[in-house]
Amino acid sequence: MATVETSPDLAPIAERADAPATLPTLTAGGLTWRAATADDAPALLELRNTIAAADAEPYRETLEEITDLFDAPWRRFDVDSVLGFDADGALRAYGHVETMPGDTRTLRAFLFGGVHPSRRGEGIGRELFAWQVARARQVLAASGKELPARIGVFAEDDGPASKLRLYERAGFEPRRFYSDLRRDLRDLEAAPLPDVVLDGSLRLVPFSTALDEATRLAHNDAFRDHWGSEPNTREQWQRGRTGFAPQWSHVVVDDAPDVEALLADSRTDDETAAALRAGEPLVVGYAVNLRFEEDFAVRGYTFGYTGVLGTRRAYRGRKAGLAALLASMRSFAADGMEYACLDVDTANPSGADGLYASLGYTKTHGSRLLSIEL
């Protein structure tokens, strides 16, 4: 179990969140509102993909992905979501507030929502977003976690300007910028990938179920010093895997770790220490990859997507993450994928931008996180 950090210098979260006693009433557009249920998944999928197409977003979702949202036990759609239906019973707007059970350094509430393109300009989005912000404040206030807190919303850089204006008028400010990158894999003879030799007892292996938990621990350690990142609980790590491509994923293990030195290292977290004492495998670098076939037509090419990539902090500089990434890229190419794709925080502390550029990745589009910090 991760230890929740405390911030004694902060005012109580209930005070900082400034939660309203009641949520705003939704009246714009004459829609009928209620909480979402799992039975709404098909209608929600259609609405979300319609919005994505209208806003030129570079992805589409599948029914399996939407169903997976409802299956996660920490999501409380009964109180943290709202759907708006027109007089004919068609879904025309949705809003959802999500918090994560593993947050130990910053308590986060993310807002997801949108309005059908045919119903924009009626004030629905403005009222809906106000409802989401108010609900996020209630959730944070009731959390009992005395941590720094954040209400966040994501936006595509080239999305509708009206969305950015809505967010900024509500007090949200841009905090982080992300670049979606791709690397051409169609002619590796003309543009070869470099070879990497791992040192010591490090060994590159295909991802396997037996190494899944060790990979989660490596990920939590690798991202511990990344802005906005929080540990994944086992429950979180196992969810959201509808696009997971284990056949494309790779990890680097240390076959003979210096257990004494790692246990004495202040960077070694409690869960990793317990795994080391138990003699469990130690994953030190990893590339977990995804296959989004529904996006091939949208982007106009086939690709493999690196969802998470990292190296344990004590192993940085030994090319473990690079080895896993290159193996992934070769797996994509072997399966006929035209490109390798990934998303990177432009202020990543590991210098990932430079690494990806050296491998031939170039930017295709960008997105940002806007937030209210509490």
From TrEMBL:
Residue ranges annotated as transmembrane are none
Question: Mind listing the UniProt keywords for this protein, alphabetically?
Answer: Acyltransferase, Transferase
Q: Where is the N-acetyltransferase domain?
A: 31-194
Q: Which SUPFAM superfamilies match?
A: Acyl-CoA N-acyltransferases (Nat)
Q: Which organism is it from?
A: Isoptericola haloaureus
State the name under which the record lists this protein: GNAT family N-acetyltransferase
Q: Which domain of life is it from?
A: Bacteria
Keyword Nucleotidyltransferase: yes or no? no
